[in-house]
Design brief:
The protein has 13 helices and 20 strands.
Amino acid sequence: MPGVVIIGTQWGDEGKGKATDALGDRMDYCVRYSGGNNAGHTVVVNGEKFTLHLLPSGILNAGCSCVIGNGVVVDLGVFYDELDELAERGIVVAHPLISANAHLITAYHVTLDKVSERFAGLKKIGTTGRGIGPAYSDKVNRIGLRVQDILDADTLTAKVEAALEQKNQVLAKIYNRRPIAAQPIIAELLTYAERLRPYVVDAARLLNDALDAGKNVLFEGAQAHHLDVDHGTYPFVTSSNPIAAGACTGSGVGPKRIDRVIGIAKAYTTRVGEGPFPTELLDATGEQLRTRGGEYGVTTGRPRRTGWFDALVVEQANRVNGVTDVFLTKLDVLTGWEQIPVCVGYRIDGAIIEHWPMTMSELEHAQPVYEYLPGWVEDITAVRTFADLPVNAQAYVKRIESLIGARISGIGVGPGRDESIVINQLV
């Protein structure tokens, strides 16, 4: 007691970093189990903002040991830049442990990511260009590099040279690019070897031993359910499994070790990148949501697409992930609207459905069916109990709860660590 998973229930950027950080002081371990530095988690502590891409969000809690699981793809340059930046800001943190089986992102993965997106033109996916997709492709194709490989120079050399034999053919013959030399990549990776060696672990054994000993383990997903490669809005998805089940495959613990799944949902909806978005607002209201919510990508700086809360999006995620509790973030951003629409169904080819459609074709043709709830004008950022929220804000939360199939146990009313309302204790 307990193994807890935190997941995003929309298209990412819901505030998972804040939730993970808030629970970190009650956790013995915080485990990042999927994605790479295409993720961006923002944590605000004592008014100071920290942006994390690879480091688990629990790293700012002194008593919490952090682990990078085998399901993560790691750019070691970014990894150490983040650690060094924290040190430069006077934040002393323990070096995360890292699974020997985690895969590595190299310079050739980044190159392939960028040139393939440019080559796709109007059919681009909207990747971050960080090399995540190509690294996961190599993993599945069984030509990937793992953390353990940089601990042996001969193994690393053989694997990089073998991978580049294939990559250089693709770069030259498809993209008309120069071949990439193996030696500079090998040399760069080896510069990290000795610094990393003491922290490389059998993460699956470590975490199972911790759970056996009654330790609290928090599993932190990157991205969100609807960016999952199997369950998301394919092909406009990430290359891994950020769903709750991914915590098992991405860290090496069995499903019976998970006691609670906490879904994070924003009080409205956003997404970065391409793909369908039924409640998207392409007008001044959408821009107002973006400005008031600070909706710009943590990793890319791209403006996020914005829209009203879509209950079908969150209900589907809660169902697939077995969500036990929802933490609703950024309720304060909605202050000031006279009416707040909530999407309760889709109109598709003249018929109204009240559940997530089966096909992408249906989703792309879906028109939102809205229910309009009365808004509020009171500043809620200082509110710390549900009963002290304006009546209309309470009604908004209760209506959402009735639509999404899981109880709302916490509410974010500001970006800070303490700017939250706890309704049911999450851990």
